[in-house]
TrEMBL record:
Its EC number is 3.5.1.96. Transforms N(2)-succinylglutamate into succinate and glutamate. HAMAP family: Arg_catab_AstE. Belongs to the AspA/AstE family. Succinylglutamate desuccinylase subfamily. Residues 274-346 form the AstE/AspA barrel-sandwich hybrid domain. Binds 1 zinc ion per subunit. The lineage of its organism: Bacteria, Pseudomonadati, Pseudomonadota, Gammaproteobacteria, Chromatiales. Keywords: Arginine metabolism, Hydrolase, Metal-binding, Zinc. It comes from the Bacteria. Zn(2+) binds at H72, E75, H169. It catalyses: N-succinyl-L-glutamate + H2O = L-glutamate + succinate. It comes from Rheinheimera tilapiae. InterPro entries: AspA/AstE_fam (IPR050178), AstE_AspA_cat (IPR055438), Aste_AspA_hybrid_dom (IPR007036), SuccinylGlu_desuccinylase (IPR016681). This is Succinylglutamate desuccinylase.
Length: 355
């Protein structure tokens, strides 16, 4: 008998009764034979793989939405949020008007309550999964498969539909801005006002505007699929069952409103209600001596006085060298060569947003 961390055993034939796609995913974390059925409301339910669920309403309205969570296995609140929405759809408590693709990114890591098994899945997209040597790790195989599923989903919808990809995460540390988004590099195109307004209504007021390509899932969504795509950091990492889901209520409400096509009128775009940042420096770990020089409870977006030593890597010292520079995603426990911290600074988006 297979077990899972939530002690729910769900077999494929039981999905129709339980609507528990998370339970099914965790029962079969590495592979699942595809199957499909149709709900009474006409929605076609297709399980393409473990953690990959496509819902197609009988007469889809104009949005194709990918909602992913669990790309990092221990970031449980977004997984619980998506699982609940998914269950309500499968049990026909709500009905989607749009095509949807739900993804639970890394089910075996979810079962192990770990960020990853071998490789950080969110460093393997846009082909980076093919760069390693030898037998590909689970995450390398999964990144390649997820790319294909997302391309298939958007291609089956066709070019004339709005493409959205929200990749839901929680951060290792607390944050001075509890919810924030990484807005992937758009190669000079303007940032989307309507997306900023929608995400603001989800409780996300702070945006890190990236200026370079990345190997993340959201960059893949933006660059390779032409989607409005974001990494959404919705809170702090906690184990399954220990999340205060009331802190995700706005996000839950707005995602459900989007799905059932009942979005309220959104407030006009007003830059003063947002915080925008750009990366001033990316610090990559170069040696096993890499260490952070501040405490574990120091939060994302904390600023330090000019000259403060933030990290050491062998002989290299990283100091604050611009006023207003703040830290984000500091993590000494990454693989060599990978991002161990970003330094960010505030910016204005005046003249760089459009409808
Ligand atoms: O809290 C942390 O250190 C990491 C939280 C996290 O997983 N963040 C994402 C951001 C992805 C992006 O830059 O779009 C990641 O590191 O993969
Ligand atoms: Zn994450």
């Amino acid at each position: 008998m297979k077990t899972n961390i939530l002690n729910r055993i769900v077999e494929p034939e039981a999905l129709q009764q339980s609507g528990d796609f998370l339970g099914l995913t965790l029962t079969y974390p590495k592979e699942l034979t595809p199957f499909a059925y149709t709900l009474n409301n006409g929605t076609v339910v297709e399980v393409w793989d473990t953690g990959v669920l496509c819902l197609t309403p009988a007469n889809p309205a104009g949005i194709d939405l990918v909602l992913s969570s669990g790309v990092h296995g221990n970031e449980t609140a977004p997984i619980e949020l998506c699982a609940a929405i998914c269950q309500d759809l499968l049990l026909e408590k709500i009905q989607s008007r749009h095509r949807l693709l739900f993804l639970f990114g890394n089910p075996p890591a979810m079962n192990s309550a770990k960020r990853e098994l071998v490789d950080n899945l969110n460093r393997l997209f846009s082909g980076h999964h093919s760069k390693g040597e030898g037998e590909p790790s689970w995450e390398r195989q999964r990144a390649a498969a997820l790319e294909q599923y997302v391309l298939r989903f958007f291609n089956e919808g066709g070019a004339n539909r709005q493409r959205l990809l929200y990749d839901l995460h929680t951060a290792i540390r607390g944050s001075q801005f509890e919810k924030f988004a990484v807005y992937p590099f758009l190669h000079g195109k303007p940032w989307s006002k309507s997306q900023l307004q929608f995400l603001h209504a989800c409780g996300v007021e702070t945006f890190l505007l990236m200026q370079t390509p990345a190997s993340t899932f959201s960059y893949f969504g933006a660059q390779s699929c032409g989607a409005h795509a974001f990494t959404l950091e919705l809170g702090k990492v906690r184990p399954f069952g220990e999340n205060d889901m009331s802190r995700f209520a706005d996000c839950d409400l707005m995602l459900r409103a989007l799905i059932v096509d009942a979005l309220p009128a959104l407030a006009d775009f007003d830059e003063s209600r947002f915080n925008f940042f750009v990366v001033s420096r990316a610090v990559n770990k170069q040696s096993e001596q890499f260490e952070l020089c501040f405490a574990r409870n120091i939060e994302n977006f904390t600023q330090f006085p000019l000259g403060t030593v933030l990290a050491r890597d062998g002989d290299i010292e990283y100091r604050v060298d611009e006023p207003g520079e703040a830290i984000i995603f500091p993590n000494a426990d990454v693989a060599l060569g990978q991002r161990a911290m970003l330094l960010v600074k505030p910016v204005s988006v005046a003249g760089q947003v459009s409808d």
